[in-house]
Write a structure and sequence with these properties.
612 residues; alpha/beta; Glutamine Phosphoribosylpyrophosphate, subunit 1, domain 1; Rossmann fold; 3 domains; seven-stranded antiparallel beta sheet; binds 5-amino-5-deoxy-1-O-phosphono-D-mannitol
Length: 612
């Protein structure tokens, strides 16, 4: 969380920083600020969004060809003007922006207070910049040395950029467990939490690794070192992203655009990896690991949030098709549970951002125990993608809306293909089921398009239920995780309580909640448990609950008893989650818009959760 951006070159930094902060705002949006060096070290910052910062700065001098900006997701200290970054050192000569958490900040702060430092903010970041200043003065070293010594004293996570009034041509950057990328332009450099603020100016980037520092001096080549002072040769990569993918393209919100992009993003996730005509699958990223899968006794999925729901669907897929026992773990629980892990375990980390701190820590734990670690990430070059032994990207394109939509369906598409591939390699699937699955998968993008055509009808249903105070989502089998995902989508953007449950579990408790006020969304597309889900619907109706049912086209039985039905095209049961989740995304979206919620940046959330 928190977005950081910096610029050094010949252009005015302010417009570049503001634009960069707007692109990074999905990472955190409770306050924002910029620092500009122009003889003076000027800081402008305030509570609120980047638009508030622009209004706050309006009318003041904003000159400087070296500067940095920050958009915050508060960890230490309330989101207010004072705690907003950048932070100045005691002498006001140094400034810092920081993404991460300095875990030993309290003891460092205490020691600095003893040495005469005073603190204006509640942040751990102000401690770090004063530590750097103290070292610089005490040890009589230059800024680079002082930063390096300080970073060897801190415990925790950081991506930082430091600037000094006395070094008007230099930015110092470093990272550990929080991402940082350098953009290399013509006589200019950019720094950012991800490549989105950079793509407009250059495609050449260097991703910093943990405990690496970069000393970026105007007109000179980048110098990189580890914080142990070992030289590092910058590895320059070319970005594959395009700028249009980062714009709203005529939609009111990124979330709506991303929901509508799903036919394409699913297609892109499958493209070049399968041929339903030939009956072939090629997953280049895991090709050297297929034999490990064949021999695997167990697969463990680790993930958080929506990605965890993908893991649950994958549990059905891998057990059903490949006959490998599967466990699905919340990364945050797994990492602290002293789990039993074996060297022949395969641990699969699923993450849209590839930066989620809990998922990263869980995969590092699995790696340390000798397990094979595979990644399913959307962001190319992200930390999880780089730390895993092998993996498959989802190729959904940049997802900006905080509520994950197209990343989820892309994950399901890739996981389906992977499970099918492994099933074939293990000989656990018949040729006709294998072929039928591939054919059905190839048709999915077109079928998602058909679901999207019902947007207006779904909006009309949203209108009916927009004042609900609680919602229950029910599903069985492959669609139980979809019930969880539908409820998560609803609560995170509408702020209305919603709960997902396995349909048959309802009678063990949640049924007590049902009355005429209670909308119950039932995913009723399963062929295998159709009669059972009809019974669950009857149980809700008997208690006067309102049913919104997601059914397969042509369904008449549920249509006759539900209050509203939304049809999805027929597909094989294993692939229904990719279709059935789409109406639930739209339902949440429309209710959130009707309630006046900030759809793309819901309160208290951030897109990339890089703190635990
Ligand atoms: O980037 P990741 O997939 O690792 O993120 C995991 C969760 O933080 C994320 O899915 C979160 O739950 C979303 N807000 C859901 O819409």
């Amino acid at each position: 969380m928190c977005g950081i951006v910096a610029y050094i070159g010949e252009k005015q930094a302010y417009p570049i920083l503001i634009k960069g902060l707007q692109r990074l705002e999905y990472r955190g949006y409770d306050s924002a600020g910029v620092a500009l060096l122009n003889g003076q070290l000027n800081i402008y910052k305030c509570k609120g969004k980047v638009s508030d910062l622009k209004a706050h700065v309006n009318g003041t001098v904003k000159e400087g060809t070296l500067g940095m900006g920050h958009t915050r997701w508060a960890t230490h200290g309330a989101p207010n003007d004072i705690n907003a970054h950048p932070h100045l050192s005691e002498s006001k000569n140094l400034a810092i922006i920081h993404n991460g958490i300095i875990e030993n900040y309290a003891s460092l702060k205490e020691a600095l207070i003893q040495r005469g430092f005073s603190f204006k903010t509640e942040t751990d970041t102000e401690v770090l910049i004063n530590l750097i200043e103290d070292i610089k003065q005490k040890e009589q070293v230059d800024l680079e040395h002082a930063v390096r010594i300080a970073l060897n004293q801190v415990v925790g996570a950081y991506a930082i950029v430091v600037m000094s009034k006395d070094n008007p041509d230099t930015l110092i950057a470093a990272k550990k467990s929080s991402p940082l990328v350098i953009g290399i332009g013509q006589d200019e450099y950019f720094l950012a939490s991800d490549a989105t603020p950079i793509i407009e100016y250059t495609k050449n980037v260097v991703y910093l690794e943990d405990e690496e520092m970069a000393i970026i001096t105007r007109g000179e080549d980048i110098v990189m070192k580890t914080i142990q002072n070992q030289p590092v040769t910058p590895y320059i990569e070319e970005l594959q992203m395009n700028l249009e993918a980062l714009e709203k393209g005529g939609y009111d919100h990124f979330m709506l655009k991303e929901i509508f992009e799903q036919p394409q993003s699913i297609y892109d996730s499958l493209r070049g990896r399968m041929s339903s005509k030939e009956g072939t699958i090629l997953l280049g990223g895991i090709k050297d690991y297929v034999q490990k899968f064949v021999a695997a006794k167990r697969i463990i999925f680790i993930a958080c949030g929506t990605s965890w729901h993908s893991g649950l669907v994958a549990e059905y897929l891998f057990e059903d098709l490949a006959r490998i026992p599967v466990e699905v773990e919340y990364a945050s629980e797994f990492r602290y549970r002293n789990p039993v892990l074996y060297e022949d375990d395969i641990v699969i980390a699923i993450s849209q951002s590839g930066e989620t701190a809990d998922t990263l820590a869980a995969l590092e734990l699995a790696k340390s125990k000798g397990a094979t670690v595979i990644g399913i990430c959307n962001v190319v070059g992200s930390t999880i993608a780089r730390k895993t032994d092998a993996g498959c990207y989802t190729h959904a394109g940049p997802e900006i809306g905080v509520a994950s939509t197209k990343a989820f369906t892309a994950q399901l598409a890739v996981l389906s293909l992977m499970a099918l591939h492994i099933a074939q390699a293990r000989g656990s699937i018949t040729e006709s089921r294998y072929r039928g699955f591939l054919t059905a998968l190839a048709q999915i993008p077109k079928k998602v398009e058909e679901v999207l055509q019902q947007n207006d009808a779904i909006k009309a249903i949203a209108e009916k239920y927009k004042d609900a105070k609680n919602c229950l989502y029910l599903g069985r089998g492959y669609n139980f995780p979809v019930a969880l995902e539908g409820a998560l989508k609803f609560k995170e953007i509408t702020y209305v309580h919603a709960e997902g449950y396995p349909a048959a579990e309802m009678k063990h408790g949640p049924i007590a909640l049902i009355d005429e006020q209670m909308p119950v969304v039932v995913i009723a597309t399963n062929e295998s448990a159709y009669e059972k889900i009809v019974s669950n619907i009857q149980e809700v109706k008997a208690r006067k609950g309102n049913i919104i049912a997601i059914v397969t086209e042509g369904d008449t039985q549920i249509k006759a008893i539900a209050d509203f039905t939304i049809e999805i095209p027929h597909t094989i049961e294993e692939l229904t989650p990719i279709l059935s989740v789409v109406p639930l995304q739209l339902l949440a979206y429309h209710v959130a818009v009707m309630l006046g919620c900030h759809v793309d940046q819901p309160r208290n959330l951030a897109k990339s959760v890089t703190v635990e």
